[in-house]
């Protein structure tokens, strides 16, 4: 087995636009990059039986999620010629309109960055042990299900 | 045999993290049987087990001091 | 013919990360959105026959480009269930490592935003009358060609 | 007949924006002929015309006071 350097992806609470801007700005030194692809998940104010969601409270089996993410990262770097890939997922409460997921891939030409970003999002949703508890405005809740 | 059980999401609402000391649970199929007897609500739910941080796809032997995670369908992102 | 409200897409010089952050932040009020897709083009420091590119100087046939972009925008909104779409392209000098293109699409679920973003980038590159003059460190230049 | 010529990118390096007053240029094919005679460098280049902001795909009639853009391959993004 290859030596693992497990990176953390979890951040406490919502992912702020300023954090994303910072992450983008850091890439101006990487002048081999020609295209960046970003996906951001935002908490929707869904209405369910007359009640509106006010936030999602995320929990994860962190160790296992980070191991899985490491595998996905390795697969994706093997499959696409990427210059970088950054992934952040919220834990704890993220209110409607706030960002809970930030996936950022970069490559010399646009197509690998775009394809990799989309694939990472798909795999992350299917494979990472993360759970979202949808909290309604009246403090009741239900558990999110990825369709 | 000692098993550490941890649970997540919706399942954590009715199964607390706990250490159990039981005999006769040789593999993950037997563990599922045990679980569903103890917590009948599980019977009608989809869930997966992770044995020592490996997600279980097929019946797998359980050794002493294993950690088993009980996980409802993932909903990250 | 439908009444046209032609939006400007051109910005003077590079697109700054803070501008992108601002654009993201504005969407926190739009709580029907669940997924955002972003593409950013960054000027590469390509080496050509021993000389490095230091900047790209963009010009456009602006009127025609905005009309074409309007058509593309209408096509894409017809094709995908999007909540919003924002497009910005630099004119004038953009240095290596700086951002010259910013495409931002949002939808309730992730797939339309991702597909629309990628399609807009493809069409924009193929169809908009914009030209990039690649300026080398020694002030000589060559004209960029989209492959 | 009066035609306003505008050019872009690489082509703007050797064809200035200008108004010309010529006869016998009835359509865009004739205009191309005229252009390539005046600016032989064009012959070996790829370019497109836009007549009054419509990109020309097939031979099109030119009317008086037309604006014709001469455009090398696009390279935005």
TrEMBL record, chains A, C:
Which SUPFAM superfamilies does the entry mention?
Molybdopterin synthase subunit MoaE
Higher taxonomy? Bacteria, Pseudomonadati, Bacteroidota, Sphingobacteriia, Sphingobacteriales
EC top class, as a word: transferase
What pathway is this protein said to act in by its record?
Cofactor biosynthesis; molybdopterin biosynthesis
Q: This chain belongs to which protein, by name?
A: Molybdopterin synthase catalytic subunit
Q: Which family does it belong to?
A: Belongs to the MoaE family.
- One GO process term, biological-process aspect: Mo-molybdopterin cofactor biosynthetic process
PANTHER family per UniProt: MOLYBDOPTERIN SYNTHASE RELATED (PTHR23404)
Check the record and name the InterPro entries matching this protein: MoaE_sf, Mopterin_biosynth_MoaE
Q: Assembly and interactions? A: Heterotetramer of 2 MoaD subunits and 2 MoaE subunits. Also stable as homodimer. The enzyme changes between these two forms during catalysis.
Q: Which UniProt keywords apply?
A: Molybdenum cofactor biosynthesis
TrEMBL record, chains B, D:
Record InterPro entries? Beta-grasp_dom_sf (IPR012675), Mopterin_synth/thiamin_S_b (IPR016155), ThiS/MoaD-like (IPR003749)
Domain of life, source organism: Bacteria
Q: Which Gene3D superfamilies match?
A: 3.10.20.30
User: Which chain positions lie within coiled-coil regions?
Assistant: none
Q: Which Pfam families match?
A: ThiS
What is the protein's given name?
Molybdopterin synthase sulfur carrier subunit
Q: Which organism is it from?
A: Pedobacter psychrodurus
């Amino acid at each position: 087995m290859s030596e693992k350097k497990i990176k953390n992806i979890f951040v406490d609470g919502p992912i702020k636009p300023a954090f994303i801007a910072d992450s983008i700005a850091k890439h101006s030194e990487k002048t081999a990059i020609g295209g960046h692809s970003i996906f951001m998940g935002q908490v929707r104010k869904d209405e369910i039986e007359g009640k509106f969601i006010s936030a999602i409270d995320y929990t994860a089996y962190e160790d296992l999620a980070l191991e899985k993410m490491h595998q996905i990262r390795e697969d994706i770097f093997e499959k696409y010629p990427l210059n970088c890939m950054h992934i952040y997922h919220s834990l704890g409460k993220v209110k409607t309109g706030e960002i809970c997921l930030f996936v950022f891939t970069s490559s010399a030409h646009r197509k690998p960055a775009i394809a990799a970003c989309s694939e990472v999002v798909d795999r992350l949703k299917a494979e990472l042990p993360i759970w979202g508890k949808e909290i309604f405005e009246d403090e009741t809740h239900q558990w999110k299900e990825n369709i | 045999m000692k098993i550490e059980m941890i649970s997540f999401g919706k399942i954590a609402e009715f199964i607390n993290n706990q250490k159990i000391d039981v005999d006769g649970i040789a593999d993950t199929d037997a563990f599922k049987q045990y679980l569903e007897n103890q917590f009948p609500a599980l019977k009608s739910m989809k869930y997966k087990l992770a044995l020592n941080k490996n997600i279980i796809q097929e019946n797998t032997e359980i050794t002493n001091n294993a950690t088993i995670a009980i996980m409802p369908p993932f909903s990250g992102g």
